[in-house]
Design brief:
CATH topology: OB fold (Dihydrolipoamide Acetyltransferase, E2P)
CATH superfamily: Nucleic acid-binding proteins
CATH class: Mainly Beta
Shape: globular
Number of domains: 1
Number of helices: 1
Helix content: under 10%
Length: 71
């Protein structure tokens, strides 16, 4: 059986809204990453605005992320 990968998550604040539901997110450790909305957030039409605190799942390299929860 395959093992599930442990996801690397971080908490951050949305700084800028970009086209195609992508955002610039500043993480709590000071880094800034480009992030996009996850599929479930798009399907349920959850609105994300500049200044919102979000949970981001980072990719293996740490430069891009997927927004999975609005806090």
């Amino acid at each position: 059986m395959s093992e599930q990968k442990k996801e690397n998550t971080a908490i951050g604040t949305i700084n800028e809204a970009l086209p195609n539901t992508t955002f610039k997110v500043e993480l709590r450790d000071g880094r800034e990453v480009h992030a996009y909305l996850s599929g479930k957030m798009r399907m349920n039409r959850i609105k994300v605005l500049v200044g919102d605190t979000v949970e981001v799942v980072l990719d293996d390299y740490g430069s891009k992320g997927r927004i999975v929860k609005r806090m």
